[in-house]
Amino acid sequence: LSLRILLRELKRRYDASCHGERTNLPDLPIQYVDYAAWQERQQDQLEEEVQYWKRQLSDMPSVLKLPTDFSRPGRQSYRGDRFRFELPTPLSDSLKKTATEYRTTLFTVLLAALHTTLFRHTGQDDFCVGSTVSNRDREETRNLIGLFVNNVVFRAQPKLYQTFRELLAATHESVMSGLRNQQVPFERVVDALQIDRQLSHNPLFQVMFVLRPNESNGPNSS
Prior knowledge:
Elements: H1 2-18, H2 32-41, H3 47-57, H4 89-101, H5 106-122, E1 127-133, E2 150-156, H6 164-180, H7 186-192, H8 213-216
Antiparallel strand pairs: 1-2
Helix pairs in contact: 4-5, 5-6
């Protein structure tokens, strides 16, 4: 989002310059340093949310054992690739209809489908998937450039004979409760859980799911 804001402002200035005009961008109500100071003052007030994450993520497996071609290296290399594909329009429409029918979001429906896929391929009935939130819920931050994004962890506990409707309901509750407690910085959650850091994998989750509205018209963005 910060990049989009920067490009939008650059475009306005460039267009004005091409026409020999001056562009006076509106004054920002706050600066990023003000947001950082506010976040620092909120630390004590976040303790209740910290306790939520300690209850939600306690005693969970530290690694999602994906059936990869090669064993996990001792140190992450971050080398990877990108695979692009498109969902057929009828399937996309059906997913949106399912979200409406069960009074949830497209993000939650797709996350539940991902939980199902991971459960099928790993056999694990307890794991976490990470996502991101923009943390721009305050009007003053809407047009502010800076690092607001935070990682949020959604725990999944699918069952063998569970229907997708039941899994979707559980995923919806996990998403809603997680978003209600999204203000706690991810690093603080990791510290609160006293998780030993490992060079071989990311703490709490090794799979992320992010739905960006500019690419899929979904409700969640980073």
